[in-house]
Design brief:
It is built from eleven helices and twelve strands. By secondary structure, it is of the alpha/beta class. Pfam families: ABC_tran (PF00005), oligo_HPY (PF08352).
């Protein structure tokens, strides 16, 4: 398999101001994403997991062009998406789509579902109204909705149906890559399973690739072929799903697994992460996990660990792992 998209050294910063506000405070920059590198292959689901605030969504938004990266590259079909302006990026929006966490907020509440999806097709060149209607109904059926939903408004749908509609709006123009940003986090467990199974079936049928972003390690395990564990704007570990769960190497990965409830294990002790993620400024040095790691040494505070391959396809950024 070839790489569909390759992210190299991606960086994104946001300004941080002191108590005196924007005018009098000295401007400092927070690194939301710092030197992040990974790739997604054709037909693959890459899972990006980590705590809230680690930079997962910022990464996804940078890939689809909703956030402009400050450094690094995002290579898609030989083009660096970071160097494209809005006009140059526009033709690629048909191939790179996003499913948002709150799909309802991305839909026009005053328009019927058929009009919302039909407008997407019209923008991308489908001028025939009957052809658009046929394509919309076909896509609705693919995501588990019916022709009846064509005439409904978004607020008339349940939470699961709204998320299906969000997926339909991404699929309707035939993308090659879909970035799913926490698409099932607000749904009941039973509905989550339905949506995840539907995504897996659609991926096989349509041969699309996915970047699946979530803080839920169980969801990531179910849907992903490979997983990148993200912390404080950078990857701490990356491996195939089977390898990562069989042999987690980074202390952060192990602590994430320890915090997940398992109904098949009784009398289990949970080891919750203590402390909070620090703000990663441009002056930050050392291991990202230093202040929360039980095995941290003075070296970890000063020297940033190299994100290196320790086994075939298994990468870790930790001084304790060789």
């Amino acid at each position: 398999m070839s790489h569909l998209i390759e992210i190299n050294g991606l960086k994104k910063t946001f300004p941080v101001y002191g108590k005196t506000g924007k005018i009098f405070s000295q401007k400092e920059y927070m690194c939301a994403v710092d030197n992040l590198s990974f790739y997604i292959e054709e037909g693959e689901t890459y899972g990006l997991v980590g705590e809230s605030g680690c930079g997962k969504s910022t990464t996804g938004r940078a890939i689809v062009g909703l956030t402009k990266a400050d450094g690094g590259s995002i290579l898609y079909k030989g083009k660096d998406l970071c160097k494209l302006n809005d006009k140059q990026f526009r033709p690629l929006r048909k191939e790179i789509q996003m499913v948002f966490q709150n799909a309802l907020s991305a839909l026009n509440p005053r328009r019927r579902i058929g009009d919302i999806l039909g407008e997407i097709l019209e923008i991308h060149g489908m001028k025939d109204a009957d052809e658009r209607r046929e394509q919309v109904i076909e896509t609705l059926k693919k995501v588990g909705l019916s022709e009846e939903h064509y005439f409904r408004f978004p607020h008339e749908l349940s939470g699961g149906q709204v998320q299906r509609l969000g997926i339909a709006s991404a699929l309707i123009i035939g993308p090659r890559l879909i970035v799913c940003d926490e698409p099932v986090s607000a749904l009941d467990v039973s509905i989550q399973a339905q949506i995840l199974n539907m995504l897996i079936e659609l991926q096989k049928e349509l041969r699309i690739s996915m970047l699946f972003i979530s803080h839920d390690i169980g969801v990531i395990r179910f849907i992903s072929d490979r997983i990148g564990v993200m912390y404080l704007g950078t990857l701490t570990e990356e491996a195939s799903t089977e390898t990562l769960f069989a042999n987690p190497l980074h202390p952060y990965t192990k602590m994430l697994f320890d915090a997940v409830p398992d109904p098949y294990i009784t009398n289990r002790e949970f080891h919750a992460l203590t402390g909070e993620q620090p703000v990663r400024t441009q002056a930050f040095q050392g291991c990202a996990f230093y202040n929360r790691c039980p095995y941290a040494s003075d070296r970890c505070k000063i020297e940033t660990p190299e994100f290196k391959e320790v086994e075939s396809g298994h990468k870790v950024a930790c001084h304790m792992v060789s």
